[in-house]
Prior knowledge:
- The chain has 337 residues and is α/β, with parallel strands linked by helices.
- Helices cover 31% and strands 18% of the residues.
- The chain has an eleven-stranded mixed beta sheet with strand order 1-8-2-3-7-4-6-5-9-10-11, sandwiched between helices. A five-stranded parallel beta sheet has the order 14-13-15-12-16, with helices on both faces.
Amino acid sequence: METKVLNTLEINKAVDILKSGGIVAIPTETVYGLAANALDGNAVSKIFKAKGRPMDNPLIVHIADMGAINILCSNFPDKARKLTEKFWPGPLTIILPKSNIIPDEVSAGLDTVAVRFPSHKITQDIIKESGLFLAAPSANKSGSPSPTSALHVFKDLNGKIDAIVDGGECEVGLESTVITFANDKPKLLRPGKVTINEIENVIGKIDIDDSVYNKLKENVIPSSPGMKYKHYAPSAKIILINSDSEKYIDYVNNHKDSGVVALCYDEDIDNLNVPCISYGKLDDSKEQASKIFSCLRKIDDLNAKVAYARCPKKDGVGLAVYNRLIRAAGFEVINIE
Length: 337
Ligand code: TXA
Ligand code: MG
């Protein structure tokens, strides 16, 4: 199939494709999503095929008005409502008990549905003009880093999807924060730009799923099916180095070899003797978040074999960067005291 690349003045073409059961990659404030009519199981199944995504991994439904909640969900707890009042539209996904309008393809057989109200103007326009709810996972090949530009989508999915709307670079650069209301106490499943602190300031203490920090143990059923799959990984091997700047630089320079690159901070570049890909300034987690996925792709563009990565800070937005990088590294961390 030919994949059309559309500009933001051609949204009507994207809308027509979506209304007739096709799949279109669209920009959002977090990452590009691969969208289909969420109430059309057949259209949604095309997403799984194009991405090579396992069918047991459910999708987020994107909405552009609050009325959608009552149609998609069977219950809207008070705490969930408070979070939406504070953070929507924006990079927060909430998981709620689903209504029976949701096709099995979207919820992968679970009795819940994930819902997000994006803040990106183009995403909102596409949802409103189509009159649809849009099911959309990140628009990457399953397992690859999520796409933060139309070019990333094109490289992964050209020929497999109907169209891409090019809306430039995504501002946040990491996928939304995901919190579930499936149980009595709300639980964070995926960290993102909306931080644990910001959430707890609105609704009090929440649980944090084990998989946010740790590798999923064998034989444990994940709260979020996506957590059991290898993620965000380039072809090169990523190894996280947990240390201060000086020890990181020493370690990398002592392991200088052909095919070795450093995934470092701006401040490290001058002292490293290997090719460097910086994912931002030491103290700027937001910048790191916006760059990390394109940096993971650059590692492969350089044909690197091994990338030694600075371990991000684990607080605030840094936790989200850490969560993605540790998965890209297959949980391989070297701690240097
Ligand atoms: O920012 C984002 O969230 C982007 C943009 C496109 O909106 N979307 C995105 O979707 O990252 P995806 O499919 O790549 O990640 C969604 C995650 C997966 O780990 C999936 O398993 C989980 O959310 N998820 C979706 N529905 C769920 C449900 N009902 N229960 C538990 N986890 C769910
Ligand atoms: Mg994804």
